[in-house]
Write a structure and sequence with these properties.
The structure holds two protein chains of two kinds.
Chain A: E1 11-13, H1 17-33, H2 39-52, E2 54-56, E3 59-63, H3 67-98, H4 102-133, E4 135-137, E5 140-143, H5 149-163, H6 170-183, E6 186-187, E7 190-194, H7 202-233, H8 249-287, E8 289-291, E9 294-298, H9 302-318, H10 327-338, E10 339-343, H11 363-367
Antiparallel strand pairs in A: 1-2, 2-3, 3-4, 4-5, 5-6, 6-7, 7-8, 8-9, 9-10
Helix pairs in contact in A: 1-2, 2-3, 3-4, 4-5, 5-6, 7-8, 9-10
Chain B: E1 16-18, E2 20-23, E3 33-37, E4 40-45, E5 48-54, E6 58-60, E7 68-72, E8 75-82, H1 102-107, H2 109-137, H3 140-151, H4 164-175, E9 183-187, E10 194-197, E11 201-205, H5 206-211, H6 215-230, H7 233-247, H8 253-286, H9 291-301, H10 309-313, H11 322-332, H12 345-352, H13 359-362
Parallel strand pairs in B: 9-11
Antiparallel strand pairs in B: 1-3, 2-8, 3-4, 4-5, 6-7, 7-8, 10-11
Classes of the chains: A alpha+beta, B alpha+beta.
Pfam family, one (chain A): DUF898
Protein name (chain A): YjgN family protein
Keywords (chain A): Membrane, Transmembrane, Transmembrane helix
Chain lengths: ~375, ~375
């Protein structure tokens, strides 16, 4: 039967943080006493809760992943990649350096760096595929038939190319990689399609790109003004009892305060501008995503993104870090709140996914400590 | 629209329970009745019957909004849900949902947490303490191979000016008599430092030799590095680093990194203090005065703040504070009698010029493969 969600919001979250708190806090306790091993089970419990309180059209989502498969994935990645990498780094790279073979060391380092970039791509792809394959709606799951190796290669060359032209191709590499990985994903019998374009977000990227340069000039001008001001004032204290010589302490304090303020301003401004770009990118990316007859949209404004990040930041700071356990909850509700879907989903033709179910979880992503949104 | 709630006005025959059902084949939500037959059941809808299935093959899923949901072993997406809760007659036949997972559900949250905390404490103690035992268990030949693998011949940076190596050997023989296992080299880098590498390789950087005021000062640094070799400190710290990075790998990147740095540096400071103790004993035996070494540390301590912030950041430092080290070397001088210079004037001159007078080492470092 067709579903039309034009009037209603297709995505809704009906959980409550008080209901989630016992899960989050016991997760924290168990993670601490197991030296972090419980992390994989904790993440699974968190997702089970978040998914189960998320309604899409007429039914809830269900997370079917397990802590064990996440754990196994992590161990795999550690044994297959992280440990050999450290050994190569430690023995081959050091050895080459110590023998005075800087050229060889640089070559080894360079090859390892390229390999690491592609592996990051593979990790991102496989994490998305895993998450879709463990997400159930109406008893149907998603997935992908690709292993992610091809995506890893694309990720490598698009990232490298993206950083060419002084980084001006980054919007292109981000959108084209988004299109590529989502284009390989499916839910039930339907393939996702993504046609995000870099053109529409390029101006905002330019803003982000130029902000540090502009900020630098503004700060330099401020310092110059202060310098002139200080030199003018500097004439006065000489008549006082202390006499001239070392600058008065007050000046140093003001100078230091201006320096600190400029430093903070620089990062706050840069962070905000980065969010202006990122919110535009994410709206474009989700907005050009379709699944069968369904279209998606993401409507968070830059202000919403800032509120999310500022809220997370204050939550963690004010609770001395304990609030970290609620960050995942906040991110998920933010995501669902601003996520929209339009169009139709025919349940008669929504048949089970025939993609291969991956055996284990997001190990690569964990082993290399890559955050994912 | 599909019906999503069971209609209670319809009278179902006894022994049947209204459920909702996904078969995992397509997305249609069905509303069959569950017909119990001993330890098995069938799902009946519109005259058609699906099953039988064994209750033992059901898997408990999370209950949402009072609805208890079950999956079926080996069938992705197959679900039955009891919109009005599970009838009492069925409860003994159905599996219990997992909450925390695995053994924690069996023994309860608090006993599991307490048990895990004890195990965690034991693991931490083992990981922190076993490297010193393990390092001594690694055969010297294995360590030597590892060292050779890492350092090789130091390329062409190892200096050998006229009579330089002989002067260096004399110095080594003086502070560590009759030990053939230690390999000391001077490497042409303008760094005021010395390092000990696995396999008894000690590297003195030329910057240190040039800055040194007397051979006794170099002897102090050398004796300290020999202390590291004797205590197998390098192997121990390698093993500890490996253990800590695996142990703390599960933690969030930053937390893990800081904890790692804090623990590793605490052990490193201990090792440095032990190497200092070794050096003082060795210098006393060799009758080499520790005063220039004390002065060397006093010079280093000029840059550090012994009270305020310096004391605080010392917890992250790999070495003890130079101020304290200078005081210790100074105090050890009181026990010395009849000290003789570590090298004579000619030997000292050869050592000073070991890199400067070596044409090979003076070549500009090339970009080699």
């Amino acid at each position: 039967m067709p579903y039309d969600s034009r009037d209603d919001k297709a995505f809704a979250f009906d959980g409550d943080w008080r209901e989630f708190a016992p899960i989050a806090l016991t997760n924290l306790l168990l993670c601490v006493v197991t030296l972090g091993v419980y992390l994989f089970w904790a993440r699974t419990r968190e997702r089970r809760y978040l998914w189960s309180r998320t309604r899409f059209i007429d039914d809830r989502l269900e997370w079917t992943g397990t802590g064990l498969e996440l754990f196994i994935g992590y161990v795999f990645a550690l044994v297959l990649f992280a440990i050999p990498f450290s050994l190569i780094n430690f023995i081959a790279l050091n050895g080459a350096m110590m023998r005075g073979h800087e050229g060889l060391a640089a070559l080894i380092g360079f090859v390892m760096y390229l390999f690491l970039i592609s592996l990051t791509g593979v990790a991102i792809f496989r994490a998305l595929r895993y998450r879709l394959s463990r997400t159930l709606w109406h008893g149907i799951r998603g997935g992908s038939d690709a292993f992610g190796l091809a995506f890893g290669f694309s990720y490598l060359w698009k990232t490298v190319l993206g950083s060419f032209a002084l980084g001006l191709l980054i919007p292109w590499s981000m959108t084209s990689l988004w299109n590529e990985r989502w284009g390989r994903m499916s839910f039930g019998p339907h393939r996702f399609h993504a046609e995000a374009r870099a053109g529409s977000i390029f101006l905002k990227f330019l803003l982000f790109y130029l902000a540090p340069i502009i900020a630098f000039f503004v700060i330099a001008i401020l310092f110059a003004i202060f310098g002139v001001f200080a030199a003018m004032l500097g004439g006065f204290p000489q008549g006082g009892s202390e006499g001239g010589g070392a600058p008065p302490e007050g000046f140093m304090v003001i100078l230091f305060a201006i320096g600190a303020a400029a430093y903070l301003l620089f990062f706050v401004v840069l962070g905000v501008v980065a969010l202006v770009y990122y919110s535009a990118y994410f709206s474009e990316a989700v907005g050009k995503l379709t699944l069968g007859e369904l279209q998606f949209a993401f409507t968070a404004t830059t202000k919403d993104w800032i509120r999310l990040f500022l809220g997370n930041f204050l939550l963690v700071i004010c609770t001395l870090g304990v609030g970290q356990v609620f960050v995942g909850y906040r991110n998920w509700t933010f995501f669902i709140r601003h996520m929209h879907a339009y169009g139709e989903m025919n349940l008669d033709t929504l048949t089970q996914s025939t993609t291969r179910e991956p055996g284990q979880g997001e190990g690569l992503l964990d082993a290399f400590d890559i955050g994912a949104i | 629209m599909l019906s999503t709630s069971a209609r209670s006005d319809r009278s179902d025959p006894p022994g049947t329970i209204r459920v909702w059902h996904y078969d995992g084949v397509n997305g249609l939500r069905r509303a069959p009745v569950l017909v119990v037959d001993g330890d098995r059941f069938t799902l009946a809808e519109n005259g058609a019957s699906d099953g039988p299935y064994a209750f033992a093959d059901l898997l408990a899923r999370d209950a949402v909004a009072g609805e208890t949901v079950f999956g079926l072993k080996g069938r992705t997406g197959w679900r039955i849900g009891f919109p009005e809760g599970v009838p009492d007659v069925l409860k003994p036949l159905l599996p219990k949902p997992t909450r925390y997972g695995g053994f924690i559900d069996r023994i309860g949250l608090w006993p599991a947490a307490a048990g895990s905390a004890v195990i965690a404490a034991i693991v931490v103690v083992i990981v922190l303490n076993s490297p010193s035992v393990l390092a001594r268990a690694v055969p010297p030949s294995v360590e030597r191979q590892l060292g050779d693998l890492m350092t090789g011949d130091f390329g062409d940076r190892s200096c050998a000016g006229p009579n330089g190596p002989q002067a260096l050997s004399a110095l080594v023989e003086r502070v560590d008599p009759g030990d053939g296992d230690i390999d000391v080299r001077v490497v042409n880098l303008p760094v005021v430092n010395a390092v000990t590498l696995p396999g008894g390789h000690i590297v003195l950087f030329d910057g240190l030799i040039r800055k040194a005021v007397s051979p006794d000062e170099v002897a102090g640094v050398l004796a300290h590095e020999i202390g590291h070799v004797k205590h197998r400190d390098v192997m121990e710290s390698l093993l500890r680093q490996l253990g800590l990075s695996v142990l703390l790998g599960g933690l969030d990147g930053h937390v893990g990194g800081y904890t790692n740095a804090l623990l590793a540096s605490a052990y490193s400071r201990d090792a440095e203090a032990r190497a200092d103790d070794y050096a003082m004993t060795a210098m006393q035996k060799a009758a080499v005065t520790p005063l220039p070494t004390a002065q060397f540390f006093t010079r280093l301590s000029k840059g550090e703040d012994a009270k305020g912030v310096g004391r605080l950041t010392a917890y992250f430092a790999s070495h003890p504070m130079s101020h304290d080290r200078a005081a210790k070397f100074l105090a050890s001088a009181k026990t010395h009698k009849g000290d003789r210079p570590a090298l004579d004037a000619d030997q000292w001159a050869s050592l000073k010029g070991i890199c400067k007078t070596d044409p090979e080492a003076q070549k500009k470092p090339s970009f080699r493969f």
